[in-house]
Specification:
With 301 residues, this protein is mainly β. Helix content is 14%, strand content 45%. A hairpin with a 3-residue loop joins strand 3 and strand 4.
Length: 301
């Protein structure tokens, strides 16, 4: 998925898409972050999983397949979201769902959060670092991008702070993209999780994202050379150089249902609105409202 909409997983802590606290143990299902990855991907630049057992609210059990201190969940899903941040057209994308933890949750690997470590783990407070992939954008994603240069993806380093006050969870995350299109963004999200049924975990919450001028230039800006080239190809665009600021606010709703002790089904809906001047004033933005949905199945070993 492009650097913000779809693996995605981002939907939440994306998740997928969006984005993100670990499943049950952190109070926010992976599906939420998967979608954050998925949908946040397009909306932010192109940001599922499940309870660990039949009772979503309980702590995850160690994998009987890999041994104590390790958990593993694998699955596949499908997401539908904007073709790129600000697009009015939508794309369907396959979503690989991966969520693994090692050494009693000290190290993690997931579709939504990349490869990282919880460096500080003091009860409800967690802090750590992760390496993930910042997706790019291709001019073939939409006619509106004709004549523009592709935005290449690259490695990104993420620092996060999480706090649980059950049934609430809060996360502050800073991401720095490296490579040919560097840039930084900062997001704050909160979620409320509850179990309306013994096998169903539901999480809902808002998120707000800020990005610097480099990030916004890569995904919402148009250089003079690109404007000239796009216009020559029948896609009239004006040059645009955005500054830094809040890019979007979103609300995500995710549900994870434990069909059995191992099989889980999840769905995540993310509703985002481009609100900052950098994004909404861009000639590339065709629609400010950016909804997305992801659904999939996963198996917990």
């Amino acid at each position: 998925m492009p650097e913000h909409v779809l693996p995605p997983l981002p939907l939440a802590a994306a998740p997928i898409v969006a984005s993100p606290v670990r499943p049950a143990r952190r109070g926010v299902p992976l599906a939420c972050f998967t979608l954050a990855l998925l949908f946040h991907a397009p909306v932010m630049a192109q940001e599922a999983p499940a309870p660990s057992s039949v009772t979503p609210a309980t702590e995850p059990r160690a994998s009987t397949f890999l041994g104590d201190g390790t958990t593993l969940t694998l699955g596949v899903g499908t997401s539908v979201g904007p073709a790129y941040a600000g697009a009015k057209t939508y794309r369907v994308r396959p979503v690989p769902l991966v969520d693994a933890t090692f050494f009693d949750d000290r190290v993690f690997l997931s579709t939504a959060n990349g490869l990282g470590a919880n460096i500080i783990n003091l009860g409800p407070f967690q802090s750590g670092l992760a390496i993930t992939y910042g997706g790019g954008r291709s001019r073939s994603d939409s006619e509106r991008l004709r004549g523009l240069s592709d935005v290449a993806g690259g490695a990104a380093v993420v620092g996060f702070l999480k706090y649980r006050l059950r049934p609430f969870s809060f996360e502050l995350k800073a991401t720095n993209n490296f490579g040919p299109n560097p840039g930084a963004k900062l997001s704050f999200a909160s979620h409320y999780s509850f179990t309306p049924l013994s096998r169903l975990l539901v999480s809902v919450g808002p998120e707000v994202t800020w990005a610097d001028h480099r990030y916004n230039q890569a995904y919402f800006g148009v250089t003079s050379a690109e404007a000239t080239q796009a216009s020559a190809q029948g896609n009239p665009l004006r040059a645009y150089s955005p500054g830094s600021g809040i890019n979007d606010v979103s609300l995500s709703l995710s549900g994870v249902y434990a069909v059995t002790d191992h099989w889980q089904w999840m769905t995540n809906v993310r509703l985002s609105e481009l609100v900052g001047n950098a994004a909404k004033n861009s000639p590339l933005t065709q629609r400010q409202f950016q909804p997305g949905i992801m659904t999939g199945v996963a198996y917990k070993f």
